[in-house]
Write a structure and sequence with these properties.
2 helices
Length: 94
Amino acid sequence: MNQQNRHPEIEPNPPVPAYEVQSSPVQELPPEQHKRLFRRGILWLGAGVALMGLSFCVNYCLFHSEQSFHGVMYTMTTIGAVCITKGMGDILGF
């Protein structure tokens, strides 16, 4: 029995794709610009964590009070989450 005809569906030399494979769509940044974006990301991340912590403190301190603090708490939590997302985007290079 001929070795080449045993599995006709498997080609010994598969065709080469017609498209070119690109390494990465992300552009390489100069080191000083990357460092600046990284520091800005750390600041945004810190601001977001601080706002989330402050929102927790508002919730913890005013839980048994008769005042409504839901608007302030949810606003600070939302802004904190947006700041954290912005900071992570700057750090990761998006």
